[in-house]
Amino acid sequence: MIPVGFYSKGTLQQEEGAVVAEYPVPLKVNGQEIATLVASPHELNFLVVGFLRLQGFISQLADIELLSVCEDFGGANVRIKGELPARLKPVLTSGCGTGITFSAPVALQVSAEQSYAPEQIFTLMNELGKRADRYRTHGGIHSAAVGDGDRLLLYAEDLGRHNTLDRIAGEALFKGIDLNGLMLVTSGRISTEMAAKAAQLGICLLASRTSPTDMAVRLCRESGITLIGYMRAATFQLYTHPERLKIPTAKIDNITGVILAGGKSSRMGCNKALLDYCGEPLIASIYKTLNRVFSRVMVVTNTPADYDFLPCVKVPDIFPEKGSLAGIHAALQAAATERIFVVACDMPHLDEKLIRHLAGIGGVAVVVPQSDSGFEPLHAVYSKEALPVFTSALQAEKMKIFDLFEQVGVKIVPPEEIAAISAGFSSFDNMNTPEEYSRLQA
Questions:
Q1: CA-CA distance, 229 to 23, in Å (whole number)?
Q2: Would residue 230 count as lying in a domain?
Q3: Based on the domain organization, do 433 and 310 belong to the same domain?
């Protein structure tokens, strides 16, 4: 069983799933390696003996002097009576598998950054079905197509599913079409050889109406190819690299996203939340990010009229002029959810993946990330469980958030865990001075 994404009705759910096993068996006869049989990993002795019989090397079991099949490491060694033909002439078959290949499939890195919406993949697969006229009239034909997300660029059909990729590769050369970063859909099962050919062409997304093999899944994972199988109507199964799919992620309902906009911006010399950033107020950009992640978004501000353009709740400090701790306290008091995720109003590079990761950590009153610069309390998750401690601190004029961590349950997310999700810690960037504003605008 491997992790498989099941796509249906616009959502992707992660579950466990099985794939067809693909097993290479190098075959030696009388000390000479004559072929590698790629097959299902069961009763390989039948496969080996049957292959030798149908190739005309034996006609009865008595023709075999030694038969050794190792299912653990995938190899077969046979000694037969008589000699092999002096020259074995390979023939490439037209069946579902290529009978002989000149090299073993290897993972080639696909570096294309293109991404595709599920609707674009379904459209290309539907277009493939419309083009496959020969299949509908007499059957037995495999087909494949390449598209760029807007249109079908190349189409091929053949008796062998591998041949359809060869045809596409050849036609692309004749027509000068660069296949790097394009997607390919096929009617047939995706084997490791199919995946390897796609990687050679730079295909970044490979989809089929039927199943991939386990070796194809592994090769696509190593090559950076998004692999999709069992594509039907409006559903499919996703095996590798989900990041290339443009799937809207469900909003988080049980946490409120909070923007603290109560600071004086004294070092900036003006309200930094309203500074222009990419053609809109900075706080509007931050709001859009949080609104994509959370069902509820709140702004803590003592001047709500300044933010009338934001369609969300605004709440004032309960303890005015008490800094960021007062803003977190006010948000916890006002929130309809047990937990809140807090950011400052001057953080332009928020990373949705990192926010979702932090929001997914529970069981403690505070989840605070740590960067190479130290703790990041204004990019953290807080629970109402911390309210009594925060209230007492504010009443006692103790306003340093760090000093309160020992009094509440805190989960510190270390820098290496953060860096694995958001390289460079850019999600923590903030703008306190005109110089920082100029640098982060660049």
A1: 19
A2: yes
A3: yes
The pLDDT, as a whole number, for residue 365 is 95
- The residue ranking higher by pLDDT, 102 or 3, is 3
Domain extent at residue 218: 107-244
Within 13 Å of residue 67, how many CA atoms lie on the same side as its CB? 13
Residue 387 sits at the vertex; the CA angle it makes with 383 and 391, to the nearest 5 degrees, is 155
Mean pLDDT on 413-422: 92
Match 């890195």 to its residue by tokens: 109
Question: Rounded distance, CA 121 to CA 129, Å?
Answer: 13
pLDDT tens string 42-83: 778 888 888 888 788 888 889 999 999 887 767 889 999 988
Mean pLDDT score, 380-387? 96
Which helix (H) or strand (E) covers residue 430, if one does? none
Task: Answer whether residue 5 shows pLDDT above 90.
Answer: no
With a cut of 90, say whether residue 369 has pLDDT above it: yes
Integer Cα distance of 396 and 220 in angstroms: 59
DSSP code string of 161-228: HHHHHHHHHHHHHHHT---TT-EEEESS-B-HHHHHHHHHHT--EEEESSPBBHHHHHHHHHHT-EEE
| End residue of a domain, out of 192, 221, 244 | 244
C-alpha angle with apex 441: 438 to 442, nearest 5 degrees?
A: 95
Domain shared by 304 and 279, yes or no: yes
Give how many domains the chain has, as a whole number: 2
pLDDT tens digit sequence for 169-189: 989 999 999 999 999 999 989
Q: What's the rounded Cα separation, in Å, for the pair 59 and 343?
A: 77
- Please say which residue of 216, 244, 272 terminates a domain: 244
CATH number at residue 350: 3.90.550.10
Which CATH number characterizes residue 210's domain? 3.40.140.10
How many C-beta neighbours within 10 Å does residue 59 have?
A: 9
Looking at the annotation, which residues are catalytic?
96
Same-domain check for residues 294 and 431: yes
From the list 158, 139, 41, the residue with the least C-alpha distance to 98 is 158
Number of neighbours of residue 6 by Cβ within 10 angstroms: 15
In this structure, the answer to whether residues 233 and 277 fall within a common structural domain is no
Q: Which helix (H) or strand (E) holds 232?
A: strand 226-232
Question: Do residues 381 and 339 lie in contact, with contact meaning Cβ atoms separated by under 8 Å?
Answer: yes
Q: What is the pLDDT of residue 423?
A: 80
**What is the rounded distance in angstroms from the CA atom of residue 307 to the CA atom of residue 286?**
13
- Give the range with max mean pLDDT: 26-40, 227-241, 426-440: 227-241
- 433 has a pLDDT exceeding 80: no
